[in-house]
Amino acid sequence: MQYIASAPDGTKMPFTISEVRDEDIVIDFNHPLAGKDLTFDVELLNVRDATSEEISHGHVHGVGGQNH
Ligand SMILES: [Zn+2]
Predict the structure, then answer these.
(1) How, if at all, do strands 2-6 and 25-28 pair?
(2) In the chain, where are the structural domains located?
């Protein structure tokens, strides 16, 4: 069974109780898919050249990248 913990900043963190002991419990905050092999079908929709700003920053800007 999965539970949700709330951090002070409001971030929600799912966890599971992996073990119940006499005086404590073991909580697992790993993602439920952690350690599993994942397979994705991907459709490439567009290819473009990196901008000079992206090259100088070393990362992508815009949708799916940095917005700064
Ligand atoms: Zn940047």
Answers:
(1) unpaired
(2) 2-57
Spacing, Cα 66 to ligand 1 middle (Å): 6
Rounded to the nearest angstrom, the distance between the alpha carbon of 50 and the centre of ligand 1 is 11
Q: In this structure, what are the phi and psi dihedrals at residue 48, rounded to the nearest 5 degrees?
A: -140, 160
Provide the CB-side half-sphere exposure for 27 (13 A, CA). Answer: 9
CA of 48 to the centre of ligand 1 (A): 17
Taking domain 2-57, whether its CATH number is 2.60.40 is answered by no
Q: Could you read off the pLDDT of 26-54 as tens digits, one per residue? A: 999 998 899 999 999 999 999 999 999 99
Task: Report the separation in Å between the CA atom of 46 and the middle of ligand 1, taken as the mean of its atom positions.
Answer: 20
Q: Which residue has the higher pLDDT, 53 or 67?
A: 53
